[in-house]
From TrEMBL:
This is Integrase core domain protein. Keywords: DNA recombination, DNA-binding, Transposition. InterPro entries: DDE_dom (IPR032874), Integrase_cat-core (IPR001584), IS_Transposase (IPR052183), RNaseH-like_sf (IPR012337), RNaseH_sf (IPR036397), Transpos_IS6 (IPR047930). Pfam families: DDE_Tnp_IS240 (PF13610). GO terms for molecular function: DNA binding. Residues 64-226 form the Integrase catalytic domain. GO terms for biological process: DNA integration; DNA recombination; transposition. It comes from the Bacteria. Involved in the transposition of the insertion sequence.
Length: 227
């Protein structure tokens, strides 16, 4: 269970505020005004602290509870501005568009690609194949992972395919994330960006039905991840 000790607002208010910010294209000041209309006075700085604190905790729960995914992956990066500079959001979905994993990185290189693949495999298992673009860094990163798998995974390795059109489903999926982040006017710190993106990805997974809902609403599914 995620603890809410030390906060001065009811848990339900915090969860509604965090979910609303992560799911819809609003700024903190927009959300501040919306809450005032509902009789809740909370400043935008406090809203930011709630998102940064609770979004990654809820995201970790979502990863452990998401439905099984397919063994054919699509991987690519998209750009996110942090402190006025472009950073790289590594993302992977399966052939059906279900989210596998994501990672914000300050660099787009071999080390980042290898770290992402190891992370995604750690949370989803070894795929049969991965489709990537023509990026040499992504190819080298996946080849490095295959070298490790060859000696530790019983000889099983991942088939690598560099076919751009097969990644169209991931390009479409990027658009939801960009639509939400576009209203945020950029991030002020890498920590804040990473935490917020983890929450946005979680809200997107709920939207796609990846978290068992048992007939509940999207917010109720989100709130259930706290328990």
């Amino acid at each position: 269970m995620i603890e809410f000790k030390g906060v001065h607002y009811p848990k339900s208010v915090i969860l509604h505020a965090v979910f609303f910010y992560l799911r819809y294209a609003v700024s903190y000041r927009d959300l501040e005004e919306i809450l005032v209309e509902r009789g809740v006075t909370v400043d935008h700085a406090t809203l930011n602290r709630w998102v940064v604190k609770f979004a990654p905790l809820i995201a970790a729960r979502a990863q452990s509870r998401k439905r099984p995914t397919a063994n054919s992956w699509r991987m690519d990066e998209t750009y996110i501005k942090v402190k006025g500079r472009w950073t790289y959001l590594y993302r992977a979905v399966d052939r059906d568009g279900q989210t596998l994993d994501f990672m914000l990185s300050e660099r787009r290189d071999l080390a980042a690609a290898r770290r992402f693949f190891k992370r995604a495999i750690g949370s989803n298992g070894v795929p049969d194949r991965v489709v990537i673009d023509k990026s040499g860094a992504n190819l080298a990163g996946l080849q490095a992972v295959n070298a490790i798998l060859k000696f530790t995974g019983g000889g099983r390795t991942v088939e690598i395919r560099q076919v751009k059109y097969l990644n169209n489903i991931l390009e479409q999926d990027h658009r939801f994330i960009k639509r939400i982040t576009g209203r945020m006017m950029g991030f002020k710190s890498f920590e804040s960006a990473s935490a917020t993106l983890a929450g946005i990805e979680t809200a997107h997974m709920i939207r796609k039905g990846q978290i068992p809902a048992n007939g509940t609403t999207a917010f109720q599914t989100f709130a259930a991840l706290v328990a």
